[in-house]
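My convention is simple: the sequence line spells out the residues, with the fold written below as integer tokens. I include a record here:
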Amino acid sequence: MKIISKNKNFIVNEEIRQKEVRVIGDDGSQLGVIPTSEALKLAEEKELDLVAMSPNAVPPVCKIMDFGKFVYEQTKKEKENKKNQKIVNVKEVRLSASIEEHDVQIKSNNARKFLIAGDKVKVAVRFRGRQTDYAFKGRKILDNFFEKINDVGVIEKPAKLEGKNMIMILAPKKA
């Protein structure tokens, strides 16, 4: 079987240039250090491929296996791992320094929905003009905001003044 690898991560069959290789059989047994030509013959007899698993080792470690099946299983594992990853979005809720209580309630309900959905929430109080002199009001607003949703979220990054915004990041509570 003459397969030349399309997958550039592995060196297969005739692409192996070293004189001697350490060979692992298709059943996982150690066959020892043998010449590459002999290892290729062993692989051909079993109608399998000789794949360099760690080409940088001295001598390189090669395994006799079905390369097509191996690549298929690798891609299948990668897809499975990708499927299991959870992408966490950061949603932003903007408040002003002079926000009314009812508006805070509405914004906190939106943030609650985001946290329940598993997203992080960035809460920003925006200061205009001289309002930055009264940053303590922004901290009060953020504390009040957090009190309304502390049953579904935790503070990941506490309130901090960054430029003209006071920002706090909330994360969903672990169940």
